[in-house]
Design brief:
Order of helices and strands: EEEEEEEEEEEE
Radius of gyration: 20 Å
Helix content: under 10%
Largest sheet: 8 strands, antiparallel
Distance between the termini: 45 Å
Length: about 160
């Protein structure tokens, strides 16, 4: 397997009278991702499409906007996760364009005075279905680019000693 590309991460925080506002973005852009077309076969570039079972979008971007209270007790974050579209069955007569996909996450964290932390939130808040190349998928590899579970609510508590 041969791969090349670049990753980018940037964040910014500024103070406001009621705490701090935070902004972050990170992404990956793949220039080349070569893998064997079949066992011990010739390497082919799968960026922007798929060969065999794996599909590899050209880029992914995550962003986050947040608020942190002045006492650092409360934290709220909201942001999108975006995956570029790709071509399924690239370079074949049955090739299919799979659209890009964006989902939004929301989370809240409460830092308690006794070193406890409560976290709760939702992944894929608006319950966007992941785009699939076919109506009936043949393998989990077709789902590997997305959080295909739909909206996921979560809550947790942790305690430091």
């Amino acid at each position: 397997m041969t791969t090349s590309g670049f990753d980018l991460k940037a964040d910014y925080t500024h103070s406001v009278p009621f705490g701090s506002l935070t902004y972050a973005v990170n992404g990956s852009y793949v220039l080349e991702y070569k893998q064997p077309e079949y066992y011990k076969g010739p390497e082919v570039d799968i960026v922007g499409g798929n060969v065999g079972f794996d599909a590899y979008p050209e880029y992914r971007v995550n962003a986050d906007m947040g608020w942190v209270s002045n006492d650092r007790m409360h934290r709220l974050n909201f942001g999108p996760r975006h995956v570029a579209g790709y071509i399924y069955n690239k370079d074949k007569s049955s090739e299919t364009a799979v659209p890009s996909w964006t989902s939004w996450d929301l989370n809240y964290q409460l830092n308690l005075p006794w070193d406890g932390v409560v976290k709760m939130g939702a992944r894929n808040l608006f319950d966007r279905d992941a785009p699939l190349p076919t109506d009936s998928f043949r393998s989990l590899d077709e789902l590997s680019n997305y959080d295909w579970r739909g909206r996921t609510l979560y809550a947790s508590y942790s305690q430091s000693f």
